[in-house]
Structures are given as C-alpha cells and as structure tokens.
Amino acid sequence: MTMKYLILFFFLFISSLLSAQVTNPTSFSVSYFGETVIHPGLKMGLTYDLKRWEKSKTKRNGVKKNTIQGFELSPTVGFYYHKDYQTGIFILPEFSYTRTKTNGNFITYGFGAGYMRSIIPSVYELNSNGEIEKIHTGNNYFVTNYFVSFGRDLTHKQKLPMKIFLKPQFMYALPNYETGVLYFAFEFGISYKLTKKETK
C-alpha cells in the first residue's frame, strides 16, 4: 500500500468518526513531547467524548467504590527535534479508554494511527554544475502509537477544570528499513476542560 492510500484512509477514518459523533470537544491538551525523552518537542490536541458512564462496585467491607469510565477520540498534532538526525512533524489521532477514580486519579489506555513527515538536516548532493550543495529532504511515514497515560483530574479536589498527565508511549513508523522503526516517546502535559460532559 502506497503512502497516498494510507493518507487517504487516515482522513476518511477521522471524517467518519467525527461525523458520527456530533459534539463539541470536551478538552484541549498541550504537552512536552520528548522523542526518547530528551529530544524536545510539542504536542497539542482536542478530545471528543465518544461515550461516558459511571460504574459502582461494593467491596467486601461494604465500601462503595465509584469510577467514571469512557471512550475518547483525540486528534493531535505535534513535532520533535532530534539534532543531526531528523525533525519529525506528525498528525496523530488517538483512540483511548479512561478510568477515573473519585479522588481524581485516572489511567488511560490507547493507540493512534496517522501521518508523519521527517525533515533530515545536513544532506548534500552534486548539482548539474558538479558543485556540492545542501538540499532539503525527508520521508513520509504511516505512524502508529501505543500508550498508557497516568494522571490526576484536578476538578475533583482542587476545583480546577484541568488534568495533568504523564504518557509514555511507543511509536512505530512505516516504511523505514525492512520492518519499520520503533521510537520511544514521553509526554508530560495538561488538559484543560472546555465543556462539562454528563455521564450516561
């Protein structure tokens, strides 16, 4: 499958999801995005609630435990800068499941699929005059990511309409070498609530 077909599939997939879920975004996020932690970048996105519900469970000691659970779609954009290797710019929608405790602590499991463009520095070639000149080059990739996010919803205790989170993840890019290439990335960020979503 060529890259143009992967990009087309990506846009059709996102369009169908958003058209099926007529809603406003519930939050906006911004985070530090570190490829292999230390190579800096930035990531931003919107979150759409696909479904939310509250679940109650009574323990053996009679204590009732409530959690808020839900599925979410988060279109994101971002970049990272790796000196002397490449700069990566990506569009990466993510689908996730979140479980939030009454104290505000939450955990999220998810994956994403999208497009990444790399910009490679310090590449030179001979021009038609036989002179060496610097050129701008890069590669197009179909990229996926797989993550677990840990955080705290500050609405519960501090009455602030935001969340803070830590998000380690693996990214897998194709085509690259024979079997693709695996990246590790780490996010630390905040998510600001735009609307109040009632559980159903």
Question: What is shown here, in short?
Answer:
By secondary structure, this protein is mainly β. The chain contains 1 helix and 10 strands; from the N terminus they run αββββββββββ.
Report on this model:
With 200 residues, the protein is mainly beta. The chain has a single domain, classed as Beta Barrel (Porin). The protein has one helix at residues 3-20; strands at residues 27-35, 41-58, 64-74, 76-82, 86-91, 94-101, 105-126, 132-153, 162-174, 181-193. Strands 1, 2, 3, 4, 5, 6, 7, 8, 9 and 10 form a ten-stranded antiparallel beta sheet that branches. The protein is elongated and about 80 Å long. The N and C termini lie far apart (41 Å). The mean pLDDT is 82.
